[in-house]
Each structure stands twice: as structure tokens, then as C-alpha cells.
Amino acid sequence: MFKTEYNYLELKQIQSAITSTKDSLTHVSLTTEQQANVNNAMSAAHVAYQRAHDYVFYRRKNC
């Protein structure tokens, strides 16, 4: 099961992990297919982060 409840600190840690992963992968030589897979995974991670972020702030605002 996926976790659906996040707090602000967890969101900052997720955002930091996404950024760190992107930064570390810029120094690695990847094939075109591997790069496409990385880009897709990073995009999905960013979308998941953004949705969780929006939910946390919506919940905080409306509670």
C-alpha cells in the first residue's frame, strides 16, 4: 500500500531526495533508453510529490 498521509517535513525530505537523485544522475553516462526511463521516473516522482504537497497544504488550510 502507498502512504497517503504526509507531513511537511516528510515532503521536504522527498523533494530533497528527488533533487539529489537528479543531480547525481547528471554525472552518469546513460544510454538513450536509460535516460528516458530516468526522466519518466523523475517526472512521476515529481508529480507524486506535488500531489502530496497540495494535499498537505489543502488539509492544513481547511482544518
What this model shows, in words?
This protein is an all-alpha fold and 63 residues long. The protein has one domain (8-62). Helices cover 78% and strands 0% of the residues.
Total of DSSP H or I helical runs spanning 4+ residues: 2
Strand content: under 5%
Total domains: 1
Average of the residue pLDDT scores: 78
SSE series: HH
List keywords for this structure.
2 helices, mainly alpha
Concise summary:
Helices cover 78% and strands 0% of the residues.
List the helices and strands and how they pair.
Layout: H1 8-25, H2 32-62
